[in-house]
Each structure stands twice: as C-alpha cells, then as structure tokens.
Amino acid sequence: MDKIKISGADPRDFYQPAQKLSQVFQEIEKELAAKNQIICRLIINAHILDESEESSENDFGYMPLELVETFEYWTDYSKHLAPQIIQSWKEVLPELIANCDELAARIRFDARRIKIHPAEQQHADNRPQTQAIT
After folding, report:
1. What does pLDDT average to over the chain?
2. d(CA 122, CA 36)
3. What is the CA radius of gyration of the chain?
4. Cα separation, 20 vs 80, whole angstroms
5. From the CB of residue 23, how many other CB atoms can be counted at a distance below 10 Å?
6. Distances in Å between the alpha carbon of 40 and those of 8, 11, 23, 51, 65?
7. Distances in Å between the alpha carbon of 49 and those of 27, 37, 61?
8. DSSP code string of 15-74
9. C-alpha span between 36 and 54 (Å, rounded)
C-alpha cells in the first residue's frame, strides 16, 4: 500500500486554492485508475474520511482546498485488494457467526418472555382450575 502525504501549501500549489476537495478526489481517482490503483483511505487535516464524506455537501467534499493543512491518501492496486478482503472476511467470519447465534438466542428468549405478558398472565389466572381426582 502506498501512502502519499502532502502538507502545507503543496496541495494549493498543485491545485487551485478555491477548488473543492470532491473535485480533487475525482482527479486523483482518475490518475490512479490509469495505473489500476484505487484510493483506500483519505485523511484531511488528520481526519479520516469515510466514503460519504468525500462528496457530501455538508462535509469535507465541499471544503475549499485553501482550508486544507494536510492531505493524505493511501492507495493500492486493485488486484491486491480482493485477496486482502477475502482474508479479512475469513478472519472475522467465526466472530460474526458467534454474534449472530448469540443475537438469535437473545431474540428467542425475549420472545418467550414477551409472550408471558402480564395481561396474558392475568387471563391465565382467570381460567377455571382443575383439581386432580384422588
């Protein structure tokens, strides 16, 4: 994985200072796509951006480049990512299955407890009682 960090005035020297970050992201993605690379992580002013923040009007995507102090992005070749993703899934899948089983057990327990609701219990108390014949 390659990590590129640009600090200070460097981003503003290369791009127009009033340019929005979302436009810068798009340009970088185009450049990397030509080399079969993709952006794995974006970090702006020490804040790790999630994908929704890259283009959202209320977040960093619409921030003008002149407000950026540090700009960092991590890239990798797309052919390297699939094996890494599969390996990550293989590592966390047992935990995911255990959590799903635990959640299912809690839902079953809660469902049984909810069925014995006070109103139902009161209804059960009003039923005629039978006595065993001795």
Report:
1. 75
2. 68
3. 28
4. 30
5. 14
6. 22, 19, 17, 10, 20
7. 17, 18, 10
8. S-TT-BHHHHHHHHHHHHHTTTEEEEEEEETTEEEPGGGGT-TTSGGGSBGGG-SEEEEE
9. 20
User: Higher model confidence: residue 80 or residue 127?
Assistant: 80
Tell me the pairing of strands 47-49 and 70-77.
unpaired
Look-up: residue for tokens 């080399």?
35
For residue 21, pLDDT beyond 50: yes
Distance, in Å, from the CA atom of 108 to the CA atom of 100, rounded to the nearest integer, reads 12
Domain locations in the chain?
A: 2-78, 84-124
Q: How far apart are CA 74 and CA 116, in angstroms?
A: 55
Q: Per-residue pLDDT averaged across 46-73, rounded?
A: 74
Work out the percent of the chain whose per-residue pLDDT is above 90: 6
